[in-house]
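Inputs:
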Amino acid sequence: MARLNQMAEPMRTHVADLPCPQFDTTPWTAGTKLSEQRVAIVSTAGLHKRGDRPFQGIEGDYRIIPGNTMANELVMTHVSTNFDRTGFQQDWNVVFPLDRLRELADEGIIGSVADYHYSFMGAADPSQMASHAENLAQLLKGDGVNAVLLVPV
Amino acid sequence: MGALAHYLERESIPTTQISLIYEHTEKIRPPRALWVPFELGRPLGVPENARFQKKVLQSVLELFEAEQGPVLAAFEEEAPASGSEKTAEADAWSCPVNFSPPRQEETDPEKRVSAFKREMAQLRPWYDQGLEKRGRTAMTDFDPETAEAILSNYLLGEHVEIPRKGLSLAVALRLAAQDLKSFYFEAASSRPGARAPDIREFAEWYWNQTAAGWILKEIQKKCADEQDKDLRLTGKMFLVPAGQNA
């Protein structure tokens, strides 16, 4: 489990020592209730469509995952070998819950699912992601997204 | 992850996130986060359990209804065992192929590579069966034979053919190593009527009982002596998990 104090060494120290960016303030944009949400997934699992460019380094860039992507088209090229990938191998929803979002939309629990989703590769330096995230924000606005679900790995 | 929340929210995009490491999220202070007690690599908790995944998903999306933040909530329910990883009888998992485990004293790379190739040949029908059953594979860039050739040839000092344009040798080795692990897991999970190995069972088998695990540890050592810094970094960080080093 991901309780730091219960992790085995040397993973515990490795995870505990990962640098965390510091921010003086927390920005806040009001959210909406479930039934009005148009949700996009932004993953940091290094996901992309098979055939798209694999994540090669820590450039901080992202890949676009169209909303009609199917499970057999999505692959993971995150650089880290320290987290479990067997869950993703059995069921992509454990990392990228697109089927679950589609179901929540079909059931009328959330408003809709975005046309596009995105993945970064989480081992990148966060400061390298900043400009890419600003660019991504414009794409999300264009898609009418009012609820971004960030999913780590 | 938390940094992305700051960057997007600054651009007036509301965000919520799953947190796997509470201590990190506490420091980064994103606007909305739901800490979950799940394994790294499983942010929605458990494969093949739509009901549980949906419960986690709905909990994290409900944070958008908070009137002010930052909000760091906790999802305290542990992930249940997944359908394919547990059995009523709780039998010990075993590999569908009974290949002879590599002799630990055997250090001749050519013999080890031969053992590795035999393993892959024996596992291939199980991999194919799993692919047919699941309709997908997590292998990314290479088919099993290509991944095998990249790793074997590199270890033996032979020419490494990289089929995809623009990939460096370092990236090709990393992707081939990941694909190899996916191949072994998918093959090992495909015996009809038997469960998939859990994370620990798979790691113990793969890293300590297969020629594939030995090959990757040898490649790790070889990379350490390379001039190319990307190869050195790949060997040090991206082939063998912390705790499994040779």
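Chain B touches chain A through 92 residues (CB under 8 Å). Flag for discussion at group meeting.
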